[in-house]
């Protein structure tokens, strides 16, 4: 696995390094030792599979409040997304910044999102699926979010928003949470 740091502290693009032969290829998609060697949270408490029917579907920006903050390793296994990590950690040197990466089933790229960053994505094609790990189980009372059109971030989503949940549309515009821990 290749880890490329981004402009947001603790967020990494993770590329696979396939080993190929006449049968096809094999690539490590997750390795706790390699994550830990880069100083990243390697615990996996939960794995989620997300399916979106339509291109333009927007989900997020989500996080969990401390002490339930969750680090995620997000990979697209069908279709394509524009995946975003937004830094809502008040004490972070990159507070208020975000990074967006195109994850596709073809490029096999992943995004590591540390606890304390809000995560969201927009599907770029119909019938898209994401598979991602979370370092902490989903805790309903700890969930939080930031509105996808928050002027602090000014994220230029690639497509018009075709679908967003009422809950995601109602998140506040100003991040004000302790999401670390």
From TrEMBL:
Please write the reaction equations for the catalytic activity of this protein: dTDP-4-dehydro-6-deoxy-alpha-D-glucose = dTDP-4-dehydro-beta-L-rhamnose
Q: Which GO terms describe its cellular component?
A: cytosol
Q: What is its EC number?
A: 5.1.3.13
Source superkingdom: Bacteria
Pathway recorded for this protein: Carbohydrate biosynthesis; dTDP-L-rhamnose biosynthesis
CDD domains, per the entry? cupin_RmlC
> Sorted alphabetically, which keywords does the UniProt record give?
Isomerase
**Do you know which InterPro entries this protein is assigned to?**
RmlC-like (IPR000888), RmlC-like_jellyroll (IPR014710), RmlC_Cupin_sf (IPR011051)
Q: Where is this site: Participates in a stacking interaction with the thymidine ring of dTDP-4-oxo-6-deoxyglucose?
A: 138
Please list the GO biological process terms of this entry: dTDP-rhamnose biosynthetic process; polysaccharide biosynthetic process
Assembly behavior: Homodimer.
- Similarity comment: Belongs to the dTDP-4-dehydrorhamnose 3,5-epimerase family.
Q: Which NCBIfam families match?
A: rmlC
The name this protein goes by in its record: dTDP-4-dehydrorhamnose 3,5-epimerase
